[in-house]
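Reviewers asked in the last cycle whether our approach scales beyond single polypeptides. To address this, we selected a multi-component target totalling 227 residues and predicted its structure end to end. The input consisted of the following lines:
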Amino acid sequence: SQQGEEDPQALSIQEGENATMNCSYKTSINNLQWYRQNSGRGLVHLILIRSNEREKHSGRLRVTLDTSKKSSSLLITASRAADTASYFCATAPFPYGNNRLAFGKGNQVVVIP
Amino acid sequence: DTEVTQTPKHLVMGMTNKKSLKCEQHMGHRAMYWYKQKAKKPPELMFVYSYEKLSINESVPSRFSPECPNSSLLNLHLHALQPEDSALYLCASSQDPGRQETQYFGPGTRLLVL
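The resulting structure, written as structure tokens, was:
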């Protein structure tokens, strides 16, 4: 079953603006991961946040995790045209570890040059 | 080498055909995965191999048959598929099945069943 469920929205933003996506899930997790997918190709891992972490940064990416609300957000700052992609959150449910990643619906982000 | 390769990139097959998808990684990863992704949908887990043994089968129909000949190679044998099996098939790997780690994905095989 899929746990991670983003708010089903498509974002269209201007280059240079920030993009925020949310993800909610239903059960206890070991970690939550964000992936990017360009045009139906393979997924690229962006960031992993563990259940005992609240915030994590990687370059222009900022991820937060609120286990009490079972939700996460991904912020992309100073967006670029190359950020145009689908973004998926994926949860690793406890106690299965990383074996059973469940992907959310995904957010389509379009960055207009 | 941090790459997962998949062949072929595209595959068209009839419902009576037998074909195979191939996935390869040389990162020393001991967990490998098959996912199925329909258009505009998230990837859905099909199979997980841990240390070359099938550890998870997400109730996938028997017309899909996975095989892990060695730690670097993962195959998905296809037989008597249905048109609704048309999808992007993604392979992924991770270093240690029991640890909290990222998965590395291949570019996928786009399958069309006629």
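The interface with chain A takes residues 4, 31, 37, 39-45, 48, 50, 55-56, 88, 90, 92, 94, 97-108, 110 of chain B (CB under 8 Å). We regard this as preliminary and will revisit it once experimental data from Aim 1 are available.
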